[in-house]
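Protocol step 6 of 9: fold each sequence in the batch and record its structure tokens directly after the sequence line. For illustration, a two-sequence batch is reproduced in full.

Sequence one:
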Amino acid sequence: QVQLVESGGGLVQAGGSLRLSCAASGIIASINSMAWHRQAPGKQRELVATITTTDRTSYADSVKGRFTISRDNARNTVYLQMSSLKPEDTAVYYCNANLVRDRFPAYARDYWGQGTQVTVSS
């Protein structure tokens, strides 16, 4: 069983910064890509940022220039550095990893974390 554990969520004032972390554990052969999604109350879950094995990144327009996604391959960890936070960034943030388990059935699939709450006050 692969598990993604998120940390770093909490309360922050508008204009402040916060860093989210997500560590993947278990018997993993390789991680193809990792991403952060978020879901605000009454809204659909949206993709925020992605990062590939070659460290190619992409961002939603709403966070571009303010958020930075990165990964530490040795730790199987992905980070989301958030700055200039706005109240509209308030949401539950979910970590996602597309990876291959080092056990049967060994094919790429998506795994999800439980989510961490980020609340930005005005």
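Sequence two, same batch, same settings:
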Amino acid sequence: QVQLVESGGGSVQPGGSLRLSCAASGRIVSVYAMGWYRQAPGKQRELVAVIRSAGRTNYTDSVKGRFTISRDNAKNTVYLQMNSLKFEDTAAYYCNARIVLAGTYYDYWGQGTQVTVSS
């Protein structure tokens, strides 16, 4: 089983930056993708960014040009660099890992880390 431990959340002013980290542990056979999701109160959880095994990335439109997802395979860690933060970025951010075994997907989730953007 894969465990994901997140860190890096906090409170920042508009226009500020944060860097989220998600460290994976356990037996990792084949990672299809790792991503960051977020959920604000009263809203559905949405995909923020995803990075696939070969390095291909995708971002939700609202964060394009401001957020960057990256990975360090040697450390089994994925990062989310968040720049030019806005009030609407306030949410709980969750790390996700999708593992593929024998053609079947298995999803694992981090505990969540709070990001608050306020003046």
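Proceed to step 7 once all outputs are recorded. Observation for sequence two: The chain has no helices and eleven strands.
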